[in-house]
């Protein structure tokens, strides 16, 4: 009959240390990649949300036969306005209408990019009357866009969303908007 001591087998200290070392090496490789993936996904998500809003507004202008204005309020937020005629005063777009348009994440008529994303450059300039100094895009009742941009870009304008992360493949997304409503997105790294 075998003794109880030989029946109770376990792992030696060396075997446990080898397993811990393997787990440590795998963590050193995978954790930074996961963090970079998560940050890249956050930037792409902010860009997708902004693009979705840009796509919804021309449809709203056509469906409701109003002009809609997207105003860049700060370096990380934008606001929504509408007016019934080209000479009428701009009115704050009510949250109920923004909900119908599936513009999510709005507080009042303002939407903020996910932190730490910011708008860093824009071709768009202020065009509302009276001017308030904030750049904006106006969506017309026929679905086209109106914006004032430098003379080199009569039919398109762009805005760039940036993140401070340096270890992601693209830490900037340039969104180019055409007067016809077409939207192009190009990533870059700085």
Short structural description:
With 190 residues, this protein is α+β, with helices and mostly antiparallel strands. It has helices at residues 4-7, 13-64, 95-100, and strands at residues 67-72, 77-83, 91-92, 106-107, 110-112, 118-122, 136-139, 145-146, 156-162, 172-178, 183-188.
Provide structural commentary.
- Strands 1, 2, 3, 4, 5, 7 and 8 form a 7-stranded antiparallel β-sheet that branches. A 4-stranded antiparallel β-sheet has the order 6-9-10-11, with helices on one face.
- The chain is elongated.
- It has one domain: minor pseudopilin epsh fold (3-Layer(bab) Sandwich).
- By secondary structure, the protein is an alpha+beta fold.
- It has helices spanning 4-7, 13-64, 95-100; strands at residues 67-72, 77-83, 91-92, 106-107, 110-112, 118-122, 136-139, 145-146, 156-162, 172-178, 183-188.
- The mean pLDDT is 85.
- β10 (172-178) and β11 (183-188) form a beta hairpin.
- The protein is built from 3 helices and 11 strands, in the order ααβββαββββββββ.
- The chain is 33% helix and 27% strand.
State the main characteristics.
single chain, alpha+beta, minor pseudopilin epsh fold, 27% strand, elongated
> What percentage of amino acids are in beta strands?
25-35%
Q: What is the highest CATH level, the class?
A: Alpha Beta
User: What about the largest sheet?
Assistant: 7 strands, antiparallel
Q: What overall geometry do the principal axes of the alpha carbons give?
A: elongated
SSE succession: HHEEEHEEEEEEEE
**Rg:** 26 Å
Please, what is the average pLDDT? Answer: 85
Q: Catalogue the unreliable spans.
A: none
Number of strands: 11
CATH homologous superfamily designation: minor pseudopilin epsh domain
